[in-house]
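Hey,
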Amino acid sequence: MKILLDECVTKRLKNYLADFDVFTVVELNLSGIKNGKLMVYCVENNFDVLLTIDKNLMFQQNLDRYAVTIVVLNSFTSKIEELETFIPSFKSQAEGFEKHSAYIIDL
């Protein structure tokens, strides 16, 4: 599974997702890109998941247009200490993710 970590997600989360092929917006020089263009980038570059903490993203985009999955970690902060607690739930649900869909991961 190929995952793009949104700009609002700390790059340190990548270390907790070693089972996956993970990239960050920063390392791909996509910082500051608008969400619509980011979604297009994900599709054009065969990303399976856009992982974010932006709870509005899934409502701002027409998911039918993009063959990618949006996964929102239902976190109040981007601190790694909080985000890492969502990883077991993310991993247990990952196989069931469908493109053109959004999922909220809770604790």
